[in-house]
Design a protein that fits this description.
Elements: H1 6-11, H2 15-34, H3 42-80
Helix pairs in contact: 2-3
Length: 81
């Protein structure tokens, strides 16, 4: 059975899936910093920040991997219209 890397699997997903995953990083970034206003301990804030910031970065790089270079060009073209 041939081994398929994660990058190859993500690259086979659709453009729409890539855009959705890429857009998911926005709420994760917002939550990672907004939770600092919660009245909880500094340790809990640190853990929440690491978790949500990590999710944001994972969604960001995952979305970019799914889109690839051609998908990025397509997004830029859509933005220009």
């Amino acid at each position: 059975m041939p081994t398929v890397t994660i990058k190859e699997r993500l690259g086979k997903l659709s453009f729409r899936t890539g855009v959705i995953v890429l857009l998911m990083c926005v709420p994760f970034y917002v939550i990672s910093f907004a939770q600092m206003a919660l009245p909880i301990s500094a340790a809990a804030k640190s853990v929440l920040w690491v978790v949500f910031f990590g999710l944001a970065k994972t969604a960001q790089y995952g979305g970019l991997t799914i889109l690839g270079a051609e998908g990025i060009r397509r997004l830029k073209a859509l933005r220009r219209r």
